[in-house]
Amino acid sequence: MSEVIFSVFPSENFVDLGLYQFGWEQCDPSHSFGPAARNHYLFHYCLSGTGTLYAHNEKKKTNSFQIKSGQGFMIFPNQICTYIADQKIPWEYVWLEFDGLRAKETVELAGFRLEQPVYRARYKDISETMKEEMLYIVNHREESSFHLIGHLYLFVDSLVRSSTSAQISRGSSLRDFYIKEAFSFIEQNFQNDISVEDIAASIGLNRSYFGKIFHESMGKTPQEFLISYRMTKATELLKLTNLSVGDIGNAVGYPNQLHFSRAFKNVYGVSPRQWRYEHGGKNQY
Questions:
Q1: CA–CA distance, 237 with 75 (Å, rounded to integer)
Q2: CB 3.0 to 4.6 Å from 31: which of 27, 153, 205, 226, for a disulfide?
Q3: What is 137-167 written as a DSSP string?
Q4: pLDDT tens digits, one per residue of 222-243
Q5: What is the DSSP string of 77-140?
Q6: Same structural domain for residues 94 and 41?
Q7: Is 167 within a domain?
Q8: Do 63 and 199 fall into the same domain?
Q9: pLDDT tier at 104 (50, 70, 90 boundaries)?
Q10: Number of domains in the chain
């Protein structure tokens, strides 16, 4: 029978990169998972044994990949996949499910694509560090959220640096500068009545071009990013303070409580008051 360690990450308040769940499993022969799709990025690293990944590509056709010890595979959000342990030498693997505003950029830097989801190590020593970071997270699940997120960043760093498919930067420094400056403007002004035009103007670009490079870099429009950022800040305030829903809406850039509640429900599927109740926040009644 399979041996499994499985944990769900307790915090949703990490915007750039956040964990969702993680674990380790020694699979039984021919043990399979799927077909299924995930909501976030999910990376498996094979510690021993072998198995097969069946994954849909951009054309919705299924590709198969043989994965062995020392290799790994990335599953993309909403990608339908099935993976099956070998009948004679079933795999043992460790996994991390993560996402965030920097997740798409990270995965692309590591060279993963829907057509090429397999991880192969370019540098064995850095790959070993990556494996150790994954196992550390799995085996220290009682540590604080900040502690585990720190090790998630160390994992990401070693994943990108060790991957044979890692992308080499090609003159993107100016674009990166614009994106970072946009982040900075949003962080400092999200509580004010700012628009995409304001963000673009703050870095000296027209809205159309700014929207194009932002979406290409982040996988979201500037408006989607701004809403996501504000809603994440709102969940922090709902959980950690006694502020009223109206005051929290005002604090994240929504002076009209009705508009705030509607935007919040569009993102999380429940009202701010219900979210606070379900997540054990303060001022529940």
A1: 32
A2: 27
A3: HHHTTTS-HHHHHHHHHHHHHHHHHHBTTPP
A4: 999 999 899 989 998 998 888 9
A5: BT-EEEEEE-SSSB-EEEEEEEESTTHHHHHHHTT-BTTB-EE-BS-HHHHHHHHHHHHHHHHT
A6: yes
A7: no
A8: no
A9: confident
A10: 2
61: CB partners within 8 A, 6+ apart: none
Among 19-28, 165-174, 266-275, where is mean pLDDT lowest? 165-174
**What is d(CA 19, CA 15) in angstroms, rounded to the nearest whole number?**
10
CA 216 to chain centre: 17
Both 13 and 128 in one domain: the answer is: yes
Pick from 113, 98, 8, 87: nearest CA to 44: 98
**Exposure letters 96-133 (e unless 16+ CB within 10 A, then b):** bbbbbbbbbbbbebbbbeeeebbbebeeeebbebbbeb
Instruction: Give the residue from 162, 187, 221 where a domain finishes.
Output: 162
DSSP letter for 226, please: H
Quick one: 144 and 201 in the same domain?
no
Whole-angstrom distance, CA of residue 268 vs CA of residue 285: 20
Q: What distance, in Å, lies between the first and last C-alpha atoms of the chain? A: 46
* Mean pLDDT computed over 129-155: 93
Cα(182)–Cα(185) distance, rounded to whole angstroms? 5
Q: By the 8 A CB rule, do 266 and 251 touch?
A: no
For residue 247, give both structure tokens.
């005051």
Are both 156 and 70 inside the same structural domain?
A: yes
**Token pair of 152 as six digits:** 């998630």
* Token output for 60: 């919705």
Cis peptide leading into 77, omega within 30 of 0? no
Whether the per-residue pLDDT at 44 is higher than 90: the answer is: yes
> What CATH number corresponds to the domain at position 191?
1.10.10.60
Single pTM value for the model = 0.66
